[in-house]
Design a protein that fits this description.
Blueprint (H helix, E strand, L loop, with lengths): L1 E7 L4 E8 L5 E4 L25 E2 L4 H4 E5 L5 E13 L3 E15 L9 E4 L13 H5 L7 E5 L19 E4 L12 E4 L4 E2 L11 E3 L2 E4 L2 E2 L5 E4 L6 E4 H10 L3 E5 L5 E4 L9 E4 L8 E5 L2 E5 L1 H4 E6 L2 E6 L1 E4 L5 E3 L1 H4 L2 E6 L4 E6 L29 E7 L15 H6 L2 H9 L5 H24 L3 E2 L10 E5 L1
Parallel strand pairs: 2-8, 3-7, 10-31, 16-26, 17-25
Antiparallel strand pairs: 1-2, 1-6, 1-29, 3-8, 4-6, 5-6, 6-7, 9-10, 9-27, 11-28, 12-30, 13-16, 14-15, 14-21, 17-26, 18-19, 18-20, 20-24, 21-22, 23-24, 27-28, 29-31
């Protein structure tokens, strides 16, 4: 998960939050949190009594209450408060309403994550208050935020937590130094509510033309949601199973204790994790939207884990029977620079680059380097962010084997060895996948329960930098 520091209150109290495009709430733990927070000793806790600008969000106790449930059994409870939100050094929102959490239930946080800042639309907020996205309207040079998620900052090769140095989140524009060519834009709001006819404005969703593997069309839904809060790509179980099977994967379900049990990749119930031969050929996964093809190759879709038995390559894909589309998480956003236009309701992609020298004239006005008329915009600011996995990763202590034994070990045996280590990397992989899948399932369930007209979703035949401008 991609996290960064924000300030709340006066003087500002600092919190590390997950910037999540798949939700719309802002919450941090409260100093009044009960014994359920006891294990989070390293967290910062918001203390309203120490902020001179903190006020009640509402005079209604019912409206002030905050409660969020997650499909994996996690939940958070708290109360809303109104105070100053600071993003970077110069952007402030004076009357931002957020939740201060007083009770956690089975909540598993990242190593440094102390809360969540949702960058989705207000429709999916748990309350009727203005969200961060609402309050950014008219405050920025452009009604856009953009993300460059450098894969070198994600899943470091030595299995230790990394401080990112080049990934960034920009409020108010884009940074062409981190992508090539021009952004290709796709309209949101492809779907309407049945009874009101109003456009559904919740997630950063867009319509796909088709999904292909190795050039062959997959029987998959045409709905895609861009979600920075998901570490994996989540898709329909049948399609994910086919992708795994086509690429010769060995698939597993994970017991609660972390034990891996091999299953068929095309099993109706799906799988929790899949491993492939790191040296074998791999068929590319392609998402096609508005005629533009976005290709994910072997390097984009495999997580390479080094053990003394040899490398284990785990698919960064997860299937679910409960969702009608695709969640494009980090595995997609590592490859493609992503811009989110919350005024024109569109999302744009371009091939990401660590340091590009090409400039797109169409995008120049949105670029940080643009020196034209700024009106009443906020100047650029930089703050450090971190990239975290769902838990601090510990390198598995796998016993040494002879070279002969190493070469004879199957992916299943290697994977079982890794997952057999307490707090080993395999368990972390499963935890990330499970959390991503469960929470994204819940989000798709919200879409399904919103009486939306989904007739267009036909089955086919085949240190990080946050910059505010």
């Amino acid at each position: 998960l991609w996290t960064g520091e924000v300030g709340l209150g006066t003087p500002p109290q600092t919190f590390v939050v997950d910037f999540d495009t798949g939700s719309a709430d802002l919450w941090v733990p409260s100093v009044q949190c009960d014994e359920t927070c006891a294990e989070k000793r390293n967290w910062n806790y918001f203390d309203a009594s120490k902020s001179s600008t903190a006020t009640e969000a509402s005079t209604s106790d019912i409206q002030n209450a905050f409660h969020a449930d997650y499909a994996d059994g996690e939940s958070v409870l708290g109360v809303h408060v109104k105070d100053v939100l600071r993003l970077g050094d110069s952007l402030t929102i004076d009357n931002q309403i957020f939740a201060q959490i007083t009770t956690l239930s089975s909540y598993e946080a990242c190593a440094d994550e102390e809360g969540v800042l949702g960058l989705g639309f207000s429709f999916i907020s748990s309350h009727k208050f203005d969200t961060v996205l609402n309050n950014l309207q008219g405050r920025l040079r452009h009604p856009i935020f953009s993300m460059y998620l450098n894969p070198e900052d994600d899943y470091p090769k030595d299995n230790t937590k990394a401080i990112s140095r080049s990934s960034e989140l920009i409020f108010g524009g884009v940074n062409q130094r981190h992508y090539t060519d021009c952004l290709t834009w796709h309209d949101l709001g492809q779907f309407e509510e049945v009874f009101t006819g109003q456009t559904f404005q919740g997630y950063w969703d867009f319509k796909l033309d088709k999904v292909q593997v190795g050039g062959a069309e997959m029987p998959a839904s045409q709905l895609a949601v861009v979600d920075s809060g998901s570490t994996y790509i989540v898709g329909p179980t049948e399609a994910i199973g086919q992708i795994a099977q086509i690429n010769g994967a060995e698939c597993f379900i994970m017991e609660d204790g972390g034990e891996a049990i091999e299953v068929k990749c095309d099993a109706a119930s799906g799988f929790d994790a899949a491993a492939v031969d790191c040296d074998a050929p791999f068929f590319e996964l392609e998402f096609v939207a508005d005629g533009q093809t976005y290709t994910l190759s072997k390097n984009d879709l495999l997580l390479d884990i080094e053990t003394s038995l040899g490398d284990v390559c785990v698919l960064r894909l997860m299937g679910s029977n409960d969702i009608p589309g695709w969640v494009l998480g980090d595995a997609f956003m590592n490859k493609y620079y992503t811009a989110f236009d919350f005024e024109n309701k569109r999302v744009g992609f371009a091939l990401a680059a660590k340091d590009s020298s090409t400039l797109c004239q169409d995008d120049l006005v949105m670029d940080l380097s643009y020196t034209g008329e700024l009106d009443n915009t906020v100047p650029s600011v930089d703050v450090d962010l971190h990239q975290n996995d769902d838990d601090e990763v510990v390198s598995p202590n796998v016993p040494s084997q002879s070279q002969h034994n190493q070469s004879s070990k199957s992916a299943a045996q290697k994977f079982a060895m890794v997952t057999g280590v307490v707090f080993g990397f395999g368990f972390i992989v499963y935890a990330m996948a499970r959390r991503s899948r469960a929470r994204k399932i819940a989000r798709f369930e919200e879409i399904a329960m919103s009486n939306l007209d989904l007739s267009g979703l036909e089955e086919t035949d085949g240190g990080v930098t946050l910059t505010v401008t």
